[in-house]
Design goal:
The protein is of the alpha+beta class. Helix content is 24%, strand content 26%. The strands form eight sheets. A seven-stranded mixed β-sheet has the order 4-6-2-13-10-11-12, sandwiched between helices. Strands 1-27-21-22-23 form a five-stranded mixed β-sheet, with helices on one face. A hairpin with a 2-residue loop joins strand 17 and strand 18 (391-395). The longest helix has 23 residues, at 511-533. The chain is globular.
Amino acid sequence: MKFDTPATVNPIDRLKVVGQPHDRIDGPLKTTGTAHYAYEQHDAVPAHAYGYIVPATIGKGRVVSIDTSRAKVAPGVLAIVTAKEAGKLTKGKYNTAMLLGGPDVQHYHQALAVVVAETFEQARSAAALVRVDYARTPGAFDLAAAKAAAVKPDDGQPDTAVGDFSGAFAAAPVKLDATYTTPDHSHAMMEPHASIAAWDGGKLTIWTSNQMIHWGKGDVATTLGLSPDNVRLISPYIGGGFGGKLFVRADAILAALGARAANRPVAVALPRPVMFNNTTHRPATIQRIRIGATPDGKITAIGHEGWSGDLRGGGPETAVQQTRLLYAGANRMTATRLATLDLPEGNAMRAPGEASGLMALEIAMDEMAEKLKLDPVDFRVLNDTQVDPEKPNRPFSQRNFVQCMRTGAERFGWNQRSATPGARRDGRWLLGMGVASAFRNNLVMKSGARVRLGKDGRATVETDMTDIGTGSYTVIAQTAAEMLGLPIGQVTVLLGDSSFPVSAGSGGQWGGNSSTAGVYAACVKLREAIAGALGMDPATVVFEDGKVTAAGKSKAIAEAAAGGELVAEDSMEYGDLAKKFQQSTFGAHFVEVGVDAATGEIRVRRMLAVCAAGRILNPKSARSQVIGAMTMGVGAALMEELVVDKRLGFFVNHDLAGYEVPVHADIPHQEVVFLDETDPVSSPMKAKGVGELGLCGVAAAVANAVYNATGVRVRDYPVTLDKLLDKLPAA
């Protein structure tokens, strides 16, 4: 099905199932331990062996020799695979570094070998016996030091220029020119990267934890030199990903190589202390923002430059992208520069680009509001735009940004905020409020599904879509139930198997909207088949309460499959609407903090997110997604930082003891408000993504609240007490 004109009235609009706050249908399985994750497929793969990786202990250089002699004779060892034993491997499309290194070492903890043994303990013990000798070479591990040599990336992220930015900025009566930094961040998801691989002749099956099944299948085939037809990926449940599982990682490839060498299935899980340097992370950024405005607050010039680093062949963190679209201003400039660093691979992490970019831009907007003596909410509202500022003839499909700001200000009690920093107290606590805009582009991806109607009247949906804890099972079931007029309990959803039709996958907050649109397309085709089987007019037929009605006659939907199961398959493809309309999601984040006047300890007291993201398919799971994103934003603001050893080239705090993330006690109260909107330009579902929007802007709202509480402006994240202590107001 082609989606190239805005959606009109369709069966989803009945909202009997879609749009309702259904419980997660996978919830009971997960809370009872009966949802088997990648490393737990013991029933599907009995008697498998275990692999344990040997990671590089230098940041850059070459392997001179690998001595596996002691490991080979250790108890239980079945096989050891290094680059030499593996033979020719090819780098996958979605990886920057080789997943099995050697002789070249591209980054710290790059996998150099896998030891396979009967038990996990035997594999781990034997891996410790492998001796690797290196020839270390100098590497680049410091973004600030490499900044001067950074270049314009060649991956389709051009600089932009509209009007005369330099001239307008120089002439602006009020201006800001400031630099902000964000550190490297880790995904730190609950489930580690894990896989079980099994060969059947030349055919390979991998049970793995992967967000994008089709991409993963292709990269496994490319890496191992197999036909894609001989590779099957299965990933029914994923214990969190945040973008770190968009791409196949070393666990999957080493499980496959180990299984081939040992001639039996092999399970490989990356140990938590290895994940931080072996897999991907959100790259650090340096961002320079310049804003010029008239005394009444109208932006006349806005410029944003961003620097980040990655391994050679990698891409940038596009932290400037929201600045192209969020605020009005006739004279504009954005520029992205990429430095070559020898740190582990930088890549997508929840809301790549906007999450980092808004951490800087939304502090800059607060600083500018203060210079103009304007309320920060009013300043943002004043510079709203209903068209793409770079292409004024291209309107936004929906843009309720101002409503988000105004609704949030009223709900949060923004009028209680003092414009004078440090003016509000609660005992020893300095109190402050902060606000930030939320923005994330709405992306759609081609997505397919297969829907079956059985003789018992039950529907089954099959698609390689994944559920990373986001509620995919539930919104897909809701979509099929709505389209076929069935209770949600009569729909079975099967996900995460590359033998199913190719879906959008889970990433870029495109998953929910795109995958349900694919199910919609398949259900339209199945509705036609059902109507035909029952001798009814497909154009007038109504599906409701398990019955099919047309021309005053009703039949049970099960009758359509009396002669055998009915099957329909289709996908949703998107036309040129994205060229005619700018599709984005919007929001506003409000935060109140307390800062200890003596110690600088920061406590988040309450948070509010107001989101405009099209139709909300399941308010209950969407709220959960936004609350999780808000929590992640607090981590980015106050705690999270991968500390780089700039001499040896690795992340020092590579475990959950040293890499701090928020816990329940850190955030007493969170509230989420969804504006009542639909976007017919987005898809037949009239929905958009929301899971990443909930993160965008949160860190800046926290930082702005800290400033309002203390008068101390921190431009280098995270906002830790050591950056406040010597600047706090006198007690």
